[in-house]
Amino acid sequence: MKHKIKKHNNASSKSHTHVHLWDIPKRYFPRNSKAKNYRADVLRLVESLAYTNKLTQYSSMVAVFNIKSIHQSKPYIPRPNETFGRIEDFVYHYENYCHRVFAFREKILQFLNATLPIGYTEKQVKIEHIIINPIVKQAKIIPLIEKFSKPTSALCKLIADRHQLTHRIYYGDKFDHFLRPNQNVNQSSFESWLGEWEKEILKRAAQVGRAEYEISEICNHLAERIMTYKDSISVAAQGASSNKSKR
Predict the structure, then answer these.
(1) What is the pLDDT of residues 149-208, one digit of tens each?
(2) DSSP code of residue 139
(3) How many domains does the chain have?
(4) DSSP secondary structure code for residue 132 in this structure
């Protein structure tokens, strides 16, 4: 979609086929709001998440290499503490990513509330409120926000893991911090058990990779929809004022 943006210096209009979050002109931010501060927070988290994704993907490959090497006679047979150490590295980065995804969601919601005329206080801003708000719906932003709540989305799954990590995951005996399969193993099934262990790690790493794609989609479309909506209400307000002056 093309979007017309008039420059403040009265230069000719410039046609934009795409506008990123950091390209939103100042005039779209309400005065005396925290919109620009929340945008800065969002963009910092986007960079941080991209970096944490790299660490997660790298550490997953090292962890899987160590697991694979357990039943191989060459070229490398790791000691148990080396394997567990590499898996701990992966778990650390994965957990870090989950926590940052939750923070990203909360900052996005606050940014929308501060930028659009939604009217919630900061404490009232919750995804269950934003996702049913008529202004957010009119601005066609709900499909982007639903990426945080649809069970099929990677972002939703990571946030669910974040809640587990924060509130329940270390309690009871069902969670294994090294992500080992919860099944009995003997010598004949040991190689298959190791294969399931690899899959458990790779599944989480892939989920982080999909989340990066979903974050990119949000950042690539949110600004354009905010600007289109605010332009539409500005035109409507001008039309109403013009009609009033003619009476």
Answers:
(1) 999 999 999 999 998 877 665 555 667 888 888 877 776 788 889 999 999 999 999 999
(2) T
(3) 1
(4) T
Q: Would residue 109 count as lying in a domain?
A: yes
Q: pLDDT by residue (tens digit) across 73-114? A: 667 788 889 999 999 999 999 999 999 999 999 999 999 999
pLDDT at 10: 39
Can you give the CATH number for the domain in which 139 is found? 1.20.120
Question: What is the Cα–Cα distance from 177 to 91, expressed in whole angstroms?
Answer: 8
Least Cα distance to 118 among 139, 102, 104, 103 occurs for 139
Q: How confident is the model at residue 135 (pLDDT cuts 50, 70, 90)?
A: very high
Relative to beta strand 3-5, strand 14-16 is antiparallel
Rg, the chain, Cα only: 24
Question: Tell me, what's the pLDDT at 86?
Answer: 95
Residue 200 contacts residue 64 (beta carbons within 8 Å):
no
User: With contact defined as beta carbons under 8 Å apart, do 136 and 130 qualify?
Assistant: yes
Q: Nearest to residue 127, comparing CAs of 159, 143, 111, 105?
A: 105
* Residue 168 included in any domain: yes
Range of the domain at 147: 40-181+194-231
106's tokens: 């909360």
Contact 28, 43 (CB under 8 A): no
